[in-house]
Amino acid sequence: xxxxxxxxxxxxxxxxxxxxxxxxxxxxxxxxxxxxxxxxxxxxxxxxxxxxxxxxxxxxxxxxxxxxxxxxxxxxxxxxxxxxxxxxxxxxxxxxxxxxxxxxxxxxxxxxxxxxxxxxxxxxxxxxxxxxxxxxxxxxxxxxxxxxxxxxxxxxxxxxxxxxxxxxxxxxxxxxxxxxxxxxxxxxxxxxxxxxxxxxxxxxxxxxxxxxxxxxxxxxxxxxxxxxxxxxxxxxxxxxxxxxxxxxxxxxxxxxxxxxxxxxxxxxxxxxxxxxxxxxxxxxxxx
Length: 287
Description:
Layout: H1 43-58, H2 60-72, H3 76-89, H4 93-106, H5 112-129, H6 132-145, H7 150-162, H8 166-179, H9 184-196, H10 200-213, H11 218-230, H12 234-247, H13 253-263
């Protein structure tokens, strides 16, 4: 994933398909990355590209006209990428997605790894607009070029989750876990997908596996709590919800989900509000 591991930018707060298990897909934090390497190689262009990308991340409204001027001056792919990043950072996500896709297409068959990154950026930009189908299509193109990247499988899995296509989401999370077996975040995502697919037994298995690696992981505890709730194990569910409340700050999204679990009747869990997404601090590069 291109915009991953920054805790200020949760990827999703997707509500589930089943009203009887109405809890969001867990948040996956984002991590900052530099721009994709290889767009500019000449020293003067590389410096201008680096400066443009820095401005795009910090002051995108200033970066956008500067990058557009650079295009007129013959800036090439680096200038176009800076425009796309500035568009993304300034909230013009659909335009950014179109730019990322155009750059990837215009590269022809060159540098498949870099093209995969651009398609992935397009996918995440489409997700910001709520266009999950377009996001999944772009992410599929990225995966054609870079099948061994677990983050790309997670990206598309999240797009399928937004479409409530739970079997497809689970399949993509499966591939990510095959590539990175002890990734707690992906195990929690797959647990949530199983829960949404009305298979609390498999959700419980994934939540337990995640907790065997990270015993105090609040999202894993929540998933286990809701899986137990769906299986009719109220005491076990309450134990996990109360443990979450001891671990997380009062009033946090995790605390609200735990409180909702404790106050729910039977297997019904009231929906928690989706968390708003904020802009990532950087794009591209080796992830």
